[in-house]
Amino acid sequence: MTTSMSADLPARRRPSLAQELVESLSTRIRGGEIRPGDKLPTESEIMRAFGVSRTVVREALSRLQASGLVETHHGVGTYALKPNTGGDFRVDPADIATVRDIMVILELRICLETEAAGLAASRRTEAQLADMREALDQFRAALEPGGDTVTPDFRFHLLISQATDNKYFADLLSHLGAAIIPRTRINSAKLGDEDREPYLARVNREHEDIYEAIRRQDPEAARAAMRTHLGNSRERLRRAQDR
Length: 243
Prior knowledge:
Layout: H1 3-6, H2 17-30, H3 43-50, H4 54-66, E1 70-73, E2 77-80, H5 99-123, H6 126-141, H7 150-162, H8 167-176, H9 188-191, H10 196-215, H11 219-242
């Protein structure tokens, strides 16, 4: 990727590095270049080939796994699966560019993720709960100025969708990708007249409420906490749009 070329494009309309990697690997799998049963290159090999970080590679592989294109065997590797021949649900992250676009996505997420949180509370495993805890710990560690909170934020929501034991929740969230996180498109804190640190601290508390309900295996509390979390984002954007 040439820095001088990408610098001329609006940052909010560029696909993320993870999305570019997902699209590249998806094309190779669907086109037959990587056949069902083939072992994908290691994380280190993908990092070198695409010039991206390990975090980017892991996010991309997580999305591919949620999409049913690969499966990962821990300690062994990641293998390609036979692509689904049915029509794909597609949302181009580059089209999520305005406050109105983000509000529309949030409306979808409220419907989708509220129920996902309830199902996850009923069906999650201890291993999935531990992965959610790890994602939240990474989010909290990134609260310092300049830290990457988007990757653990998206991972937390994706892990909840995977804990539903219903692949279609994870499929939908994976297709949307990290673009579902409003601050990847706009300055959410600024729109809400908040500084970055208090804004992210509040998001962290909302995440913890969701996690605690799932940990207690309380479906109704999990649904309520997720609806509050996403509803707060929608309300903040609605007020900004009104202004």
